Amino acid sequence: LRIRESKSADAIYTTQKRLEALFHVAVVTVYPMIEEFVNIVNTCDPRHGDYQCNTAMQLCQWLKKQGKSEKAVDIAALLVAALPPNDLIESTKINPIGFVNVFLRNDYVTERLTTLLRKNVPPPTIPKKFKVIVDYSSPNIAKEMHVGHLRSTIIGDSIANLLEFVGHDVLRLSHIGDWGTQFGMLIAHLQDKFPNYLSVSPPIGDLQSFYREAKVRFDDPNEPEFKKRAYNCVVELQSRNPDSIKAWTMIVDVSDRENKQVYKRLKISDKLQNRGESFYDEMMKDVVKQLDEGGHLKLEDGRKLMFVPDCPIPMTVVKSDGGFTYDTSDMATIRHRLQVEKCDWNIYVIDSGQKGHIDMVIKAAEVVGWYNPSEQKNQFVGFGLVLGEDSKKFKTRSGTTIRLSELLDEGLTRSAAKLQEKNRDKDLSKEEFEAARDAVAYGCIKYADLSKNRISDYIFSFDKMLEDRGNTAVYLLYAYTRIRAITRNSGVSAESLQEYLQATPRLPLDHPKEFKLAKKLIQFHEVILSVLESLLMNGLCDYVYELSCVFTEFYDVCYCIEKDRKTGEIVRIHKHRLLLCEATSAVMDRCFKILGITPVSKM
Ligand code: ARG
């Protein structure tokens, strides 16, 4: 809990961390036998101060176990008296149960806010920079990406953005399903349908229909020859026959092009690279050999199984026909990530249905000795199902799976209608209107997903996500454009605001609503650290929403520009309030970047 000393004078610690450090000193002063025992939380009710220290109660319990009885209120009083001199705390209040309520000093808050503004919302300091792999999106080739992959794409991209923001070295990998027996029937069908495929690139327009055609033939008892040839194609592909590889590459490319279109529309980072099952194919043999030699495999009905502690079912590492499985492939994957990529932190963003599988792979890798959990961390980051408005599996009206491209198209139509309903098409140029339409459509699809706790199933509803009230993308995008417009319309140039900022060591935040907004703004770093811990992006969404609500409270009563009621002439410009607007939009902007949402300046 102690602040780790950093060499850098620029280190940015959160208020929470600073308070923890202060209370820590108090605890060890009063109770030298105690090592670490500090618990600081944010308060929800402003009457109880800005933060609360709950340590006195914990100490009271601890002392009781040692046979000493001291009242929590008395312990709290001792702690407060032992707090070292500091520049953060304005006052403390001890409540009868023993909580210590902490009120922050105005000077401290303004100083922090000024730093935030001057440094253009820097990230908080983290103890150590890691090499992190984020496995996300990961669709299967030939089958179209579905809404589950959409969730993985949105959540994974945002987690990777967050990790990158705080300074980690992030490798974004899409573990595509691009290898396996389904390619046999696809290649066989390709050979029949486009006999010239080796010289002319086949015009497969719609890979999903192509997959379905191949599957129908494969399952058709009247086409036994096709099935046989499909099996043969698998063998040839596995032995890397050049013609088979060529056919395979063509199919993978078509699928990849389709997926890239979805990424482009959603502005998914182009650092996301495909590194799927085929990449690890050649490593699987060696993995099996290593497992065998280590005595980790058991032969059962011709299969090679690995029994992993605490796992209900064993892993099938080699099938009875000698083939490998999804388990084998993920074992090769984790070994490569830990030992060749040497990542410190390996994150899997996959639907919760695969938790058992990945947890088993992680445990198995530990058992085999591929890593030491105190040095490298593997983490499954799961999410729930996407449901339709009827709370059943998300499907089209006719009961077929929803195509992502069609879903995104519908988003655009709905968002355009929403903007038209508000007559935005009248005030905006064509380009501005289209930019707003795209921002709303894609922003709301992402935000609706990110703003819910990812663990729960989530109901996909365009009606709900396009609401312009409450914690929605539409509300926030509007709030953002309004805030941007305040300084734009004030007539005060950005340069003159900057000059004022540089010349003013302490912004005069004397109005309670100014102070409240400033406190919310400097909480940004704490929120980032806590989301980093949980990887629950809804924490960040809640924060942006609260920030925009606190901003509204401020803006309702604090004028930035005062005008004469009769003449309309400007009588006073409050530059520090304009700076509060700037800080708010800058922090919102940062949050939007992490969440993958593109704001517009006019809407
Ligand atoms: N392609 C898989 C699917 O669609 C997800 C892969 C996730 N990553 C992994 N390393 N298994 O179900």
UniProtKB/TrEMBL annotation:
Pfam families linked: Arg_tRNA_synt_N, DALR_1, tRNA-synt_1d
Domain DALR anticodon binding: start-end pairs: 476-603
Cell membrane in keyword set: no
Record's keyword terms, sorted: Aminoacyl-tRNA synthetase, ATP-binding, Cytoplasm, Ligase, Nucleotide-binding, Protein biosynthesis
Domain Arginyl tRNA synthetase N-terminal span(s) in chain numbering: 17-104
GO terms under cellular component: aminoacyl-tRNA synthetase multienzyme complex; cytosol
HAMAP family: Arg_tRNA_synth
Name used for this protein in its record: Probable arginine--tRNA ligase, cytoplasmic
Phylogenetic classification of the source organism: Eukaryota, Metazoa, Ecdysozoa, Tardigrada, Eutardigrada
